[in-house]
Amino acid sequence: MSDVVTDLRQFSVSRVTLGLILSVAMIAAVITWNSARLVARIDQLEAAVESIEESMDLNGYARSVHVDELATRVGELADSVGYLLEREHLRVDS
After folding, report:
1. Same domain for 51 and 62?
2. Start-to-end C-alpha separation, the chain
3. Can you spell out the DSSP letters for 27-92?
4. What's the number of domains the chain is made of?
5. Is 2 in the same domain as 48?
6. Three-state SS for 93?
């Protein structure tokens, strides 16, 4: 029973042990702080993506695809009209 500390002044901790405990506590605090900052940034990014998705007009993409198809079709028609005009011009000259 002589190992039991009855007076607080008899309790001692070596400086190395105390330094190790403080180092582990500081490392845990830094990791926790950085993790909290990263989570906050991810939350902000999710909110930004959500607002972009809500404001995005998906019909705009569909319209641009239709415009491209229309441009191709107009090009084909222009070629046909050009051919018909040339043929008419040759017939009139003959």
Report:
1. no
2. 130
3. HHHHHHHHHHHHHHHHHHHHHHHHHHHHH--HHHHHHHHHHHHHHHHHHHHHHHHHHHHHHHHHHH
4. 2
5. yes
6. helix
Residue type, 87: R
**Pair 52, 65 in one domain:** no
- HSE on the CB side for 28, CA within 13 Å? 6
The series of mean pLDDT values per 10 residues for the chain, 94 residues long, is 64 84 95 93 90 71 72 82 74 66
Cα separation, 8 vs 61, in Å, equals 75
* Residue 69, amino acid: E
Domain housing 48: 1-56
Tell me the whole-structure pTM to 2 decimals: 0.44
Q: Are residues 29 and 48 in the same domain?
A: yes
| Per-residue CA distances from 18 to 5, 6, 15, 21, 23 (Å) | 19, 21, 5, 5, 9
